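Possible race condition, two jobs.
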Amino acid sequence: MAKVRTFVAVLLPDGLRNRLAVEIDALRRHAGAVAWVATENLHITIKFLGSVDEARLAGVAAALELAAIVPAFEVDVRGLGAFPTATRPRVLWAGAPGSPAFRRLAEDIDQALLALGFPPEGRGFTPHVTLGRVREPRRDVALAEALESAAARPFGPLRVARVSLMRSDLSPRGARYTELAAVPLPPA
């Protein structure tokens, strides 16, 4: 049986993705060994599921429909940062902080997928858009300063009105994402 790399995400509108792409271009000057996310792939991951049997995907989509009970909401995407720290970054991100509705949505999805055998997340949900992954993490003062200078920069609002079950196909040219199912949230 074929397996498919999958995750649950909130997709971004074109305008917001384009603003973040401009930010990625600006960060390139400060960071050399980074695998940057392609503009069309920018999103907020709610839960990474890993390799899933194709036969289970319909059940996963049905579980997402049961979990999508949080009414649609809006968050502001703002600020740049890094995990674990700006001085020794592994992941560069733009944040979508301070949303109880987003955290509740992630918790509801986690619980619904737990019933299908997907383990719960080990750490709390921090909504963010991954901009790039540092290939060789090390202290980088110029990058840390660039992130600090944009720590509160606004990128725009994001209306969270659906969640998407996504497929990830890896290739030498990077990942290609395909939406397998879109589950709307109830109107606010």
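Job #2 (started ~2 s after job #1):
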Amino acid sequence: MNAKRLIAAPVVVLLALTACRSVPEQTGGRSPANVEAIEGSEVSRITLTGRAAERLGIETNPVRPSSGSRTVVPYSAIYYDAEGDTWVFVESDGGYARAPVVVEAIEGERAILTAGPVPGTPVVVVGVAELHGIEAGIGQ
């Protein structure tokens, strides 16, 4: 190996390490995300600071009625857990929580549900994976 490479390698490593340094978010002493167990349930309520929700790009759409007792949500709202169960994250009480759903069919970008939140309930359509990671404690 030549001398230039021997000198450049540590510099590249040093630059990479400094780029990975985390910078704390200004939250007024508050954590950007708070996870609180919902009593009597296996799910938790996730509350985010406004800045955290903005950085995650959280977007919601309302559940829409369909034929009969069916409802429709964007397919991007559907979350499949490790057991294959299906969920959506609903927005309520200033936070987000998983709610179980039963998917009857996927039609393009729409998921037809036979069970789940009632029409009008806001469900997360962008940021679903991030909310799951927060709830699961990934990255802590």
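The first strand starts at residue 33 and ends at 37.
Logs attached separately.
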